[in-house]
Fold:
Amino acid sequence: MTGVERTQVAIIGAGPAGLLLAHLLAADGIDAVVLEARSRAYVEQRVRAGVCEHPTVELLRSLGLADRLDREGLPHEGLSLRFDRADHRIDLHALTGKTITVYGQQELVKDLIAARLATGAGIEFEAADVALHDLATDSPRVTWTDVDGGRHELRCDAVAGCDGFHGVSRPSIPSDAITLHNHDYPFAWLGVLAKTPPSSHELIYARHARGFALHSMRSPEVTRLYLQVPPDETLDGWSDARIWDELATRLEVDGPFTLREGPVLEKGISPMRGFVAEPMRYGRLFLAGDAAHIVPPTGAKGMNLAMADVYRLAPALVALLRQGRAELADGYSERCLRRVWRAEHFSYFMTTMLHRAPDVDPFLDQLQLSQLRYVTGSTAAATGLAENYVGLPLD
Ligand code: APR
Ligand code: PHB
Structure:
Protein backbone atom coordinates (compact mmCIF):
# COMPACT_ATOMS: atom_id res chain seq x y z
CA MET A 1 0.00 0.00 0.00
CA THR A 2 1.22 3.48 -0.80
CA GLY A 3 1.04 6.14 1.92
CA VAL A 4 0.03 9.57 0.59
CA GLU A 5 1.62 12.62 2.21
CA ARG A 6 1.57 16.32 1.46
CA THR A 7 4.13 19.12 1.68
CA GLN A 8 4.75 22.43 -0.05
CA VAL A 9 8.19 21.70 -1.51
CA ALA A 10 9.72 18.29 -2.15
CA ILE A 11 13.50 18.64 -2.02
CA ILE A 12 15.38 15.85 -3.78
CA GLY A 13 18.92 15.45 -2.38
CA ALA A 14 20.56 16.33 0.95
CA GLY A 15 23.77 17.89 -0.34
CA PRO A 16 24.67 21.53 0.31
CA ALA A 17 21.96 22.76 -2.12
CA GLY A 18 19.05 20.70 -0.77
CA LEU A 19 19.94 21.19 2.89
CA LEU A 20 20.48 24.93 2.66
CA LEU A 21 17.23 25.30 0.70
CA ALA A 22 15.37 23.44 3.46
CA HIS A 23 16.75 25.95 6.00
CA LEU A 24 15.95 29.00 3.85
CA LEU A 25 12.37 27.78 3.29
CA ALA A 26 11.88 26.94 6.97
CA ALA A 27 13.01 30.48 7.89
CA ASP A 28 10.10 31.70 5.74
CA GLY A 29 7.59 29.24 7.14
CA ILE A 30 7.46 27.02 4.04
CA ASP A 31 7.15 23.29 4.62
CA ALA A 32 9.51 20.90 2.87
CA VAL A 33 10.31 17.20 2.81
CA VAL A 34 13.91 16.26 2.00
CA LEU A 35 14.47 12.90 0.23
CA GLU A 36 18.06 11.60 0.14
CA ALA A 37 19.12 8.40 -1.62
CA ARG A 38 22.08 7.68 0.69
CA SER A 39 22.37 7.09 4.42
CA ARG A 40 23.19 9.89 6.86
CA ALA A 41 26.59 8.30 7.59
CA TYR A 42 27.41 8.15 3.88
CA VAL A 43 26.66 11.81 3.12
CA GLU A 44 28.49 12.92 6.27
CA GLN A 45 31.66 11.00 5.34
CA ARG A 46 31.79 11.69 1.60
CA VAL A 47 34.98 13.69 0.92
CA ARG A 48 34.31 16.65 -1.34
CA ALA A 49 35.53 20.18 -1.92
CA GLY A 50 36.59 22.50 0.85
CA VAL A 51 36.54 26.19 -0.03
CA CYS A 52 33.72 28.48 1.16
CA GLU A 53 33.62 31.82 -0.61
CA HIS A 54 33.05 35.01 1.35
CA PRO A 55 29.35 35.33 0.28
CA THR A 56 28.71 31.68 1.24
CA VAL A 57 30.13 32.24 4.72
CA GLU A 58 28.09 35.44 5.16
CA LEU A 59 24.92 33.64 4.07
CA LEU A 60 25.50 30.80 6.52
CA ARG A 61 26.19 33.33 9.31
CA SER A 62 22.99 35.22 8.56
CA LEU A 63 21.06 31.97 9.07
CA GLY A 64 22.86 31.09 12.32
CA LEU A 65 24.46 28.07 10.60
CA ALA A 66 28.12 29.08 10.83
CA ASP A 67 29.02 28.50 14.50
CA ARG A 68 31.30 25.52 13.90
CA LEU A 69 32.55 26.91 10.60
CA ASP A 70 33.60 30.07 12.47
CA ARG A 71 35.31 28.01 15.16
CA GLU A 72 37.00 25.34 13.06
CA GLY A 73 37.12 26.74 9.51
CA LEU A 74 40.48 28.10 8.36
CA PRO A 75 40.28 31.71 7.09
CA HIS A 76 42.67 32.38 4.20
CA GLU A 77 43.81 35.83 3.14
CA GLY A 78 45.78 34.71 0.12
CA LEU A 79 46.89 31.85 -2.10
CA SER A 80 49.99 30.98 -4.05
CA LEU A 81 50.38 30.37 -7.76
CA ARG A 82 53.57 28.32 -7.97
CA PHE A 83 55.41 28.25 -11.30
CA ASP A 84 58.98 28.59 -12.55
CA ARG A 85 60.08 27.11 -9.19
CA ALA A 86 58.78 30.16 -7.30
CA ASP A 87 55.71 31.21 -5.31
CA HIS A 88 53.69 34.16 -6.58
CA ARG A 89 51.20 35.17 -3.93
CA ILE A 90 47.74 36.51 -4.70
CA ASP A 91 46.80 38.61 -1.68
CA LEU A 92 43.04 38.06 -1.75
CA HIS A 93 42.41 40.26 1.25
CA ALA A 94 44.50 43.21 0.11
CA LEU A 95 42.96 43.05 -3.37
CA THR A 96 39.30 42.60 -2.39
CA GLY A 97 38.97 43.20 1.37
CA LYS A 98 37.62 39.64 1.61
CA THR A 99 38.83 36.18 2.59
CA ILE A 100 37.79 32.59 1.89
CA THR A 101 37.33 29.87 4.50
CA VAL A 102 38.65 26.33 4.12
CA TYR A 103 36.02 24.02 5.62
CA GLY A 104 35.24 20.55 4.25
CA GLN A 105 31.94 20.23 2.42
CA GLN A 106 31.02 17.19 4.49
CA GLU A 107 31.56 19.20 7.68
CA LEU A 108 29.09 21.75 6.39
CA VAL A 109 26.70 18.95 5.43
CA LYS A 110 26.97 17.60 9.00
CA ASP A 111 26.17 21.05 10.42
CA LEU A 112 23.18 21.56 8.11
CA ILE A 113 21.77 18.12 8.91
CA ALA A 114 22.21 18.57 12.68
CA ALA A 115 20.60 22.02 12.57
CA ARG A 116 17.60 20.69 10.64
CA LEU A 117 17.09 17.70 12.92
CA ALA A 118 17.40 19.99 15.96
CA THR A 119 14.32 21.92 14.79
CA GLY A 120 12.30 18.69 14.76
CA ALA A 121 12.14 18.62 10.96
CA GLY A 122 13.23 15.40 9.26
CA ILE A 123 15.27 14.12 6.37
CA GLU A 124 14.22 10.91 4.63
CA PHE A 125 17.55 9.12 4.21
CA GLU A 126 17.93 6.01 2.03
CA ALA A 127 14.94 6.99 -0.09
CA ALA A 128 14.98 4.58 -3.06
CA ASP A 129 13.27 4.64 -6.48
CA VAL A 130 12.57 8.37 -6.27
CA ALA A 131 10.43 9.34 -9.28
CA LEU A 132 8.93 12.70 -10.25
CA HIS A 133 5.44 13.02 -11.79
CA ASP A 134 3.09 15.70 -13.17
CA LEU A 135 5.86 18.32 -13.26
CA ALA A 136 4.06 20.40 -15.88
CA THR A 137 1.04 20.84 -13.55
CA ASP A 138 0.63 22.93 -10.37
CA SER A 139 0.38 19.72 -8.30
CA PRO A 140 3.49 17.62 -8.93
CA ARG A 141 4.03 14.33 -7.10
CA VAL A 142 7.09 12.40 -5.97
CA THR A 143 6.99 8.67 -5.32
CA TRP A 144 9.64 6.76 -3.39
CA THR A 145 10.38 3.68 -1.29
CA ASP A 146 11.60 3.98 2.29
CA VAL A 147 14.33 1.92 3.93
CA ASP A 148 11.76 -0.67 5.15
CA GLY A 149 10.29 -1.10 1.68
CA GLY A 150 7.25 1.12 2.34
CA ARG A 151 5.96 2.96 -0.73
CA HIS A 152 5.20 6.69 -0.47
CA GLU A 153 3.55 9.32 -2.60
CA LEU A 154 4.34 12.93 -1.78
CA ARG A 155 1.99 15.59 -3.16
CA CYS A 156 3.44 19.08 -3.30
CA ASP A 157 3.37 22.49 -4.98
CA ALA A 158 6.96 22.43 -6.26
CA VAL A 159 9.94 20.10 -6.55
CA ALA A 160 13.52 21.26 -5.97
CA GLY A 161 15.94 19.03 -7.89
CA CYS A 162 19.05 19.23 -5.68
CA ASP A 163 20.20 15.68 -6.36
CA GLY A 164 23.55 16.33 -7.97
CA PHE A 165 24.87 15.49 -11.41
CA HIS A 166 23.75 11.82 -11.33
CA GLY A 167 20.33 12.44 -9.79
CA VAL A 168 16.87 11.73 -11.13
CA SER A 169 15.61 15.33 -11.44
CA ARG A 170 17.34 16.60 -14.57
CA PRO A 171 16.61 13.40 -16.56
CA SER A 172 12.91 13.84 -15.63
CA ILE A 173 12.76 16.89 -17.92
CA PRO A 174 11.66 16.07 -21.48
CA SER A 175 14.69 16.35 -23.75
CA ASP A 176 13.06 18.96 -25.97
CA ALA A 177 12.55 21.26 -22.96
CA ILE A 178 16.20 21.51 -21.92
CA THR A 179 19.54 22.30 -23.58
CA LEU A 180 22.65 20.61 -22.20
CA HIS A 181 26.03 22.30 -22.67
CA ASN A 182 28.93 19.94 -21.99
CA HIS A 183 32.69 20.39 -22.05
CA ASP A 184 34.97 17.50 -21.12
CA TYR A 185 38.40 18.68 -20.03
CA PRO A 186 41.27 16.35 -21.05
CA PHE A 187 42.32 15.80 -17.41
CA ALA A 188 41.17 14.28 -14.14
CA TRP A 189 42.26 14.97 -10.56
CA LEU A 190 43.67 12.33 -8.29
CA GLY A 191 42.86 13.56 -4.78
CA VAL A 192 44.35 12.37 -1.49
CA LEU A 193 43.47 13.16 2.08
CA ALA A 194 46.49 12.67 4.33
CA LYS A 195 46.96 12.68 8.08
CA THR A 196 49.74 15.23 8.16
CA PRO A 197 49.88 18.94 8.96
CA PRO A 198 49.70 21.20 5.87
CA SER A 199 53.10 21.99 4.40
CA SER A 200 52.15 25.64 3.92
CA HIS A 201 49.51 27.74 5.66
CA GLU A 202 47.99 28.72 2.30
CA LEU A 203 46.70 26.89 -0.78
CA ILE A 204 49.31 26.32 -3.50
CA TYR A 205 48.19 25.97 -7.12
CA ALA A 206 51.26 24.60 -8.89
CA ARG A 207 51.90 24.62 -12.63
CA HIS A 208 54.59 22.10 -13.57
CA ALA A 209 55.84 20.50 -16.79
CA ARG A 210 54.59 17.13 -15.48
CA GLY A 211 51.13 18.54 -14.80
CA PHE A 212 49.20 20.51 -12.22
CA ALA A 213 49.32 19.89 -8.46
CA LEU A 214 47.35 21.49 -5.62
CA HIS A 215 48.21 21.69 -1.96
CA SER A 216 45.14 22.30 0.22
CA MET A 217 44.09 21.31 3.71
CA ARG A 218 41.20 20.43 5.97
CA SER A 219 42.56 21.20 9.43
CA PRO A 220 45.88 21.82 11.21
CA GLU A 221 46.35 18.01 11.15
CA VAL A 222 44.92 17.02 7.76
CA THR A 223 46.23 17.92 4.30
CA ARG A 224 44.31 17.65 1.02
CA LEU A 225 46.36 17.25 -2.15
CA TYR A 226 45.58 16.79 -5.82
CA LEU A 227 47.48 15.74 -8.95
CA GLN A 228 46.46 16.23 -12.55
CA VAL A 229 46.19 12.80 -14.23
CA PRO A 230 44.85 11.66 -17.65
CA PRO A 231 41.04 11.58 -17.87
CA ASP A 232 40.83 7.77 -18.07
CA GLU A 233 43.32 7.15 -15.23
CA THR A 234 42.56 4.57 -12.53
CA LEU A 235 44.08 4.23 -9.06
CA ASP A 236 45.92 1.03 -10.12
CA GLY A 237 49.55 1.97 -10.30
CA TRP A 238 49.17 4.93 -7.94
CA SER A 239 50.75 3.58 -4.78
CA ASP A 240 50.98 6.04 -1.91
CA ALA A 241 54.74 6.23 -2.49
CA ARG A 242 54.28 7.18 -6.15
CA ILE A 243 51.69 9.82 -5.22
CA TRP A 244 54.06 11.44 -2.68
CA ASP A 245 56.96 11.34 -5.19
CA GLU A 246 54.89 12.98 -7.88
CA LEU A 247 53.54 15.61 -5.50
CA ALA A 248 57.05 16.41 -4.29
CA THR A 249 58.28 16.82 -7.88
CA ARG A 250 55.43 19.02 -9.02
CA LEU A 251 55.50 21.16 -5.87
CA GLU A 252 59.28 21.68 -6.01
CA VAL A 253 60.33 25.27 -5.47
CA ASP A 254 63.56 27.22 -4.91
CA GLY A 255 63.38 28.21 -1.28
CA PRO A 256 62.19 26.76 1.97
CA PHE A 257 59.39 24.24 1.33
CA THR A 258 59.20 20.64 2.43
CA LEU A 259 56.23 18.50 1.53
CA ARG A 260 55.08 16.78 4.71
CA GLU A 261 54.08 13.18 4.08
CA GLY A 262 51.74 11.13 6.23
CA PRO A 263 49.28 8.22 6.15
CA VAL A 264 46.81 8.46 3.25
CA LEU A 265 43.27 8.41 4.67
CA GLU A 266 41.42 8.44 1.37
CA LYS A 267 42.17 8.66 -2.34
CA GLY A 268 40.07 8.94 -5.47
CA ILE A 269 39.98 10.18 -9.05
CA SER A 270 37.39 12.62 -10.40
CA PRO A 271 36.93 13.62 -14.02
CA MET A 272 36.87 17.31 -14.91
CA ARG A 273 33.97 18.68 -16.83
CA GLY A 274 32.03 21.80 -17.48
CA PHE A 275 28.30 21.26 -17.80
CA VAL A 276 25.29 23.57 -17.83
CA ALA A 277 21.61 22.67 -18.20
CA GLU A 278 19.47 25.48 -19.53
CA PRO A 279 16.88 26.46 -18.36
CA MET A 280 17.17 25.30 -14.75
CA ARG A 281 13.42 24.85 -14.59
CA TYR A 282 10.66 22.76 -16.10
CA GLY A 283 7.12 23.58 -14.93
CA ARG A 284 7.15 23.16 -11.16
CA LEU A 285 10.58 21.47 -11.09
CA PHE A 286 13.49 23.79 -10.24
CA LEU A 287 17.06 22.49 -10.56
CA ALA A 288 19.80 23.72 -8.22
CA GLY A 289 23.49 22.94 -7.71
CA ASP A 290 25.25 20.06 -9.44
CA ALA A 291 21.90 18.82 -10.83
CA ALA A 292 22.03 21.84 -13.14
CA HIS A 293 25.74 22.55 -13.59
CA ILE A 294 29.24 21.23 -12.98
CA VAL A 295 32.50 23.16 -12.95
CA PRO A 296 36.03 21.76 -12.87
CA PRO A 297 37.32 22.12 -9.30
CA THR A 298 40.25 24.44 -10.09
CA GLY A 299 38.24 27.55 -9.24
CA ALA A 300 36.73 25.99 -6.08
CA LYS A 301 33.27 27.08 -7.18
CA GLY A 302 31.03 23.93 -7.12
CA MET A 303 29.65 24.09 -3.59
CA ASN A 304 29.41 27.88 -3.66
CA LEU A 305 27.36 27.89 -6.86
CA ALA A 306 24.98 25.37 -5.28
CA MET A 307 24.47 27.73 -2.32
CA ALA A 308 24.02 30.74 -4.61
CA ASP A 309 21.28 28.92 -6.58
CA VAL A 310 19.16 28.13 -3.54
CA TYR A 311 19.68 31.65 -2.20
CA ARG A 312 17.68 32.70 -5.30
CA LEU A 313 15.32 29.74 -5.35
CA ALA A 314 13.98 30.18 -1.81
CA PRO A 315 12.44 33.67 -2.30
CA ALA A 316 11.14 32.60 -5.72
CA LEU A 317 9.29 29.66 -4.12
CA VAL A 318 8.03 31.79 -1.23
CA ALA A 319 6.55 34.36 -3.64
CA LEU A 320 5.05 31.64 -5.83
CA LEU A 321 3.54 29.52 -3.10
CA ARG A 322 2.52 32.21 -0.64
CA GLN A 323 1.38 35.06 -2.89
CA GLY A 324 0.87 33.31 -6.22
CA ARG A 325 3.48 35.69 -7.71
CA ALA A 326 5.50 34.05 -10.48
CA GLU A 327 8.02 36.74 -11.51
CA LEU A 328 10.89 35.49 -9.36
CA ALA A 329 10.24 31.87 -10.31
CA ASP A 330 10.11 32.86 -13.97
CA GLY A 331 13.41 34.74 -13.66
CA TYR A 332 15.11 32.08 -11.51
CA SER A 333 16.98 30.26 -14.25
CA GLU A 334 18.28 33.36 -16.00
CA ARG A 335 19.48 34.96 -12.76
CA CYS A 336 21.31 31.80 -11.72
CA LEU A 337 22.81 31.15 -15.12
CA ARG A 338 24.53 34.53 -15.25
CA ARG A 339 26.50 33.58 -12.15
CA VAL A 340 26.94 30.00 -13.37
CA TRP A 341 28.48 31.03 -16.68
CA ARG A 342 30.81 33.47 -14.88
CA ALA A 343 31.94 30.58 -12.67
CA GLU A 344 32.27 28.28 -15.71
CA HIS A 345 34.54 30.83 -17.32
CA PHE A 346 36.59 31.45 -14.18
CA SER A 347 37.03 27.70 -13.69
CA TYR A 348 38.03 27.31 -17.35
CA PHE A 349 40.52 30.20 -16.95
CA MET A 350 42.10 28.70 -13.82
CA THR A 351 42.14 25.20 -15.32
CA THR A 352 43.69 26.10 -18.65
CA MET A 353 46.21 28.45 -17.01
CA LEU A 354 47.54 25.74 -14.70
CA HIS A 355 47.13 22.31 -16.34
CA ARG A 356 49.34 20.67 -18.91
CA ALA A 357 47.16 19.95 -21.95
CA PRO A 358 47.82 16.74 -23.94
CA ASP A 359 48.20 18.82 -27.12
CA VAL A 360 50.52 21.40 -25.57
CA ASP A 361 53.23 22.79 -27.83
CA PRO A 362 56.03 25.28 -27.06
CA PHE A 363 53.86 28.17 -28.25
CA LEU A 364 50.94 27.29 -25.93
CA ASP A 365 53.42 26.69 -23.15
CA GLN A 366 54.74 30.23 -23.46
CA LEU A 367 51.20 31.66 -23.60
CA GLN A 368 50.42 29.88 -20.33
CA LEU A 369 53.54 31.24 -18.63
CA SER A 370 52.84 34.72 -19.94
CA GLN A 371 49.32 34.57 -18.51
CA LEU A 372 50.65 33.43 -15.12
CA ARG A 373 53.23 36.21 -15.05
CA TYR A 374 50.52 38.73 -15.93
CA VAL A 375 48.00 37.69 -13.26
CA THR A 376 50.73 37.63 -10.63
CA GLY A 377 52.54 40.77 -11.83
CA SER A 378 49.71 43.17 -12.59
CA THR A 379 47.51 44.44 -9.74
CA ALA A 380 44.64 44.90 -12.19
CA ALA A 381 44.84 41.29 -13.41
CA ALA A 382 45.38 39.89 -9.91
CA THR A 383 42.30 41.78 -8.72
CA GLY A 384 40.21 40.10 -11.40
CA LEU A 385 41.37 36.68 -10.27
CA ALA A 386 40.90 37.56 -6.60
CA GLU A 387 37.38 38.96 -6.90
CA ASN A 388 36.22 35.84 -8.73
CA TYR A 389 38.01 33.56 -6.27
CA VAL A 390 36.58 35.12 -3.10
CA GLY A 391 33.14 35.09 -4.74
CA LEU A 392 31.16 37.78 -6.52
CA PRO A 393 28.29 39.29 -4.48
CA LEU A 394 25.14 37.17 -4.30
CA ASP A 395 22.84 40.05 -5.28
N1 APR B 1 17.17 10.54 -5.00
C1 APR B 1 17.49 11.20 -3.84
N2 APR B 1 18.71 11.75 -3.63
C2 APR B 1 19.62 11.63 -4.59
C3 APR B 1 19.36 10.97 -5.82
C4 APR B 1 18.07 10.41 -6.00
N3 APR B 1 17.74 9.77 -7.14
N4 APR B 1 20.48 11.01 -6.58
C5 APR B 1 21.40 11.67 -5.87
N5 APR B 1 20.91 12.04 -4.66
C6 APR B 1 21.59 12.77 -3.58
C7 APR B 1 23.06 12.43 -3.45
O1 APR B 1 23.28 11.26 -2.68
C8 APR B 1 23.61 13.68 -2.76
O2 APR B 1 23.60 13.57 -1.35
O3 APR B 1 21.57 14.14 -3.86
C9 APR B 1 22.65 14.78 -3.18
C10 APR B 1 23.30 15.78 -4.09
O4 APR B 1 24.32 16.46 -3.39
P1 APR B 1 25.67 16.98 -4.09
O5 APR B 1 26.12 16.03 -5.11
O6 APR B 1 26.57 17.37 -3.00
O7 APR B 1 25.18 18.28 -4.92
P2 APR B 1 24.83 19.77 -4.49
O8 APR B 1 24.03 19.83 -3.23
O9 APR B 1 24.34 20.40 -5.72
O10 APR B 1 26.24 20.38 -4.09
C11 APR B 1 27.23 20.66 -5.05
O11 APR B 1 28.75 18.99 -4.40
O12 APR B 1 29.70 17.50 -5.95
C12 APR B 1 29.90 18.57 -5.14
O13 APR B 1 31.59 19.77 -6.24
C13 APR B 1 30.24 19.72 -5.99
O14 APR B 1 30.81 21.07 -4.25
C14 APR B 1 29.77 20.82 -5.17
C15 APR B 1 28.56 20.37 -4.47
C1 PHB C 1 40.01 21.33 -1.69
O1 PHB C 1 40.56 21.65 -0.63
O2 PHB C 1 39.38 20.26 -1.80
C2 PHB C 1 40.10 22.23 -2.85
C3 PHB C 1 40.67 23.48 -2.72
C4 PHB C 1 40.76 24.32 -3.81
C5 PHB C 1 40.27 23.91 -5.03
C6 PHB C 1 39.70 22.66 -5.18
C7 PHB C 1 39.61 21.81 -4.08
O3 PHB C 1 40.39 24.72 -6.11
Q: What stands out?
A: The chain has eleven helices and 20 strands. The pocket of P-hydroxybenzoic acid (ligand 2) is lined by residues 49-51, 203, 216, 224, 297-298, 300 (CB under 6 Å). Residues 274 and 295 are 5 Å apart (CA to CA).
